[in-house]
Automatic annotation (TrEMBL):
Residues 43-100 form a coiled coil. Keywords: Coiled coil, DNA recombination, Meiosis, Nucleus. The gene is psmc3ip. The keyword Coiled coil applies. It comes from the Eukaryota. Belongs to the HOP2 family. InterPro entries: Hop2_WH_dom, LZ3wCH, WH-like_DNA-bd_sf. GO terms for biological process: homologous chromosome pairing at meiosis; meiotic joint molecule formation; meiotic strand invasion involved in reciprocal meiotic recombination. Signal peptide: none annotated. One of its GO terms (cellular component) is DNA recombinase auxiliary factor complex. Residues 104-160 form the Leucine zipper with capping helix domain. This is Homologous-pairing protein 2 homolog. Residues 1-24 form the Homologous-pairing protein 2 winged helix domain. GO terms for molecular function: double-stranded DNA binding; recombinase activator activity.
Amino acid sequence: MELLALEGKIKEKTYGKQKIYFANQDQFKDVNDSDLKAMDGQISELGAELQSLTQSCRQLDAELKELNSSLTTEDMVAEIKELKAENSGYKARLEKIKSATNHVTPEEKEKVYKERDVYGKEWKKRKRLASDMINAILEGYPKSKKELLEEVGVETDEDCKVAPPST
């Protein structure tokens, strides 16, 4: 700063121990009002151009991000090959299932459903009986139902996260 001051490009003023540097106004030519208005117009034009370029830059950045996040052609070709291979595997599995000769007959299916209903009803009946017995015991038991079940070692359907089949 001191070198610039010695060269005359900037001026220096000392206030006590502090030095202040500022531009030497003698090196600039005098500007009249019409030149100032022209410079103001040029500044506003350049500001508008800057804003336009900034907006287009943002738009191009967004487009670049979108393109970078999408798959390349090689990646898409590889993905298509993988999906075709997976698809052919599923087709082969489907054909194997269709050609199988051990299909379940409607009579066997009906028999299984009836057995399921019978066992489901039995399950519900036994659950209701067990619940009634536990409630009868709880009438004279000083602790809570949860403590009784834990003490006796009974696991409920809810503890095992199961439910009787719906009929």
